[in-house]
Amino acid sequence: MPKQSFKQATLKELSAIVKLSQSTVSRIVNGEGDKYRIARETQQRVLHAAALHGYTANTVARSLRQKRTYTVGVIVPEISEGYSTAVLGGVEEELLKDGYFYFVVSHRHRPDLLKGYPRMMLARAVEGIIAVDTLMNEDLPVPVVSVSGHKHRQGVINIELDHGQAAHLALSHLKTLGHKQIAFIKGQTFSSDTDRRWRAIVDEAKALDILIDPQLVAQLQGQAPGPAPGFEAARQLLQTGRPFTAIFAFNDVTAMGAIQALREASLRVPKDVSVIGFDDVPAASLNNPPLTTIRQPLRDMGQTAASTLLGLIRDDMSLPHPASITVYPKLIVRKSTAHVASLTANVAD
Amino acid sequence: MPKQSFKQATLKELSAIVKLSQSTVSRIVNGEGDKYRIARETQQRVLHAAALHGYTANTVARSLRQKRTYTVGVIVPEISEGYSTAVLGGVEEELLKDGYFYFVVSHRHRPDLLKGYPRMMLARAVEGIIAVDTLMNEDLPVPVVSVSGHKHRQGVINIELDHGQAAHLALSHLKTLGHKQIAFIKGQTFSSDTDRRWRAIVDEAKALDILIDPQLVAQLQGQAPGPAPGFEAARQLLQTGRPFTAIFAFNDVTAMGAIQALREASLRVPKDVSVIGFDDVPAASLNNPPLTTIRQPLRDMGQTAASTLLGLIRDDMSLPHPASITVYPKLIVRKSTAHVASLTANVAD
DNA sequence: CTGAAAGCGCTTACAG
DNA sequence: CTGAAAGCGCTTACAG
Q1: I need a surface site. Which of A7, A310, B63, B186 has the fewest CB within 10 A?
Q2: Interchain pair B103, A105: CB under 8 A
Q3: C-alpha B96: how far from its chain's center?
Q4: Of 1.10.260.40, 1.20.120.140, 3.30.450.20, 3.30.470.10, which CATH number belongs to A11-57?
Q5: Three-state secondary structure along A269-284?
Q6: What are B217-276's pLDDT values in tens digits?
């Protein structure tokens, strides 16, 4: 089959050249020369020869021997999508700083991939796994850190948003603007954040004396990414004929879809209906109107996930570690929410 | 779902269990049972045991032995960004289909990373590299496929857009709408597509009898991702005081930034000024107004890059292969362009 | 300080 | 048809 056009020098060859054993050369090129009290002169000579012949240790052989690959696996629902990639940015930064590389796979909610990918990554000997917005159903023999809404589970550290705080930020913002009839779009059932977020909303609504009309609660259907499910959910909300002056959407892309549906129904945002999103993906500020939203510190969450995972790998999970790490949301007020104008704005007649 | 954990069994253990040699078991699990005429019954028994014990060959060991890693490296400018991730989606699909995994690194235009990452990936024994919108300056000992605007170079296959066609689509669309005074926003100098695209525009403008006013040509500055550079460029265009009725932006995000600048100057899009983007990233259709744009088949380009690279890896680059593969753009007409209203719309008076 | 040797977990040429 | 054995390129316990 394929043969390398360019043959890398091996340890064996290099040792023959410098007339030393592989052991000694290995120690020197790995910077352990002093530790083994190898004469400085010898070290220089070897290092020079190594540079001359372009020697770099074959990481595959090293991995096999050390049983360390300096590689982690990252599993996301969808790679072509703002949420995951924002997290990935943080993950990458932190990982590469420590000499780790990562594989990425996206399962697109396909059960076979959800099950197969962790296993494939394990076969690739990843030292740990980061699951982004993905529920891992099996116990894995490596440390797992999960970003967003993982169920609590032995051995999985979850980086999670303070959903109570998020619900508080969003609902009190809406309440301050005078909104009393608020519609909600919940996440898809498969999304790991859906339940937790919803419960936080219910609790917070109670605390703020906001009534949730069950008819004004829609749920995202299907697993298409993008704004389409949000568009559909908003249409469904509109069809109930019940009045509402604001929508709290599960995420930004849903909010964008909902705004389109509202427009089609000749409702202006935010004049007739306010819409608040969630996440603050890059597109949120570019939207028209720019989205008021609850920001998740996605990049930070990625960084935290990576550094936490690296810690677990180093400590072999033996030290005590938290079951979860909570990060805080922030209310970003832009133009998609405004003071309520009329409680019956969206009623046709 | 039942809980189960994958303890990686080794070939040695599995062979002990089924009481066969490692050779035989290896052949069976690699699907070569028939080739070696191993009794079907035996094969069944082994496969069953393998499944039961969750045996998967350790790819590190296999890689060392076969001198194949089934891994490629992908280098992109920025991972948290629509263009690269759209391409990545296609790359992933194609690669995983063939059992390949990939490492991703993002250089963010930092010269040290641009230089260091390819080396690091090589040390990881990647069998090939895909460069997305990134100019690779060194000769690499593995096949390289580049997506977008790579300079022609020995041993690098470039997946490139037909820029002539793209320019034709955009300019003739604008011309049909009556636009004669068109402003342009060129890409940053570091972007590998900038030059080629601009030359195509100049040629096509000539062919269509469209005059390019050098004063109405701005260039994206700085390396910030997002709409800010486009915003600045449009402001600069406005400050010239020269009349124009349309802007052809380097990409969609730039177009969005430009639209914001236009709005701040109380110019309506598309009523006063038409704006056409490039790429058709997911956010383009979500924009308000939804962007008219030149679509690049990004996902396809990723798939093509991956399958081409796999071909090169298999054939050891010995077979003749093309220097580049051209893909075609498509005009997507949405709401950011319209028939020209008045040639002096943007002149303050 | 330095080296000989074992061994990581596979695949595969070779032999029977 | 099946297995014993070599070996991929390293690292590292062990010995001197």
Answers
A1: A7
A2: no
A3: 17
A4: 1.10.260.40
A5: CCCCCEEEEEECCHHH
A6: 999 998 887 888 999 999 999 999 999 999 999 999 999 999 999 999 999 999 999 999
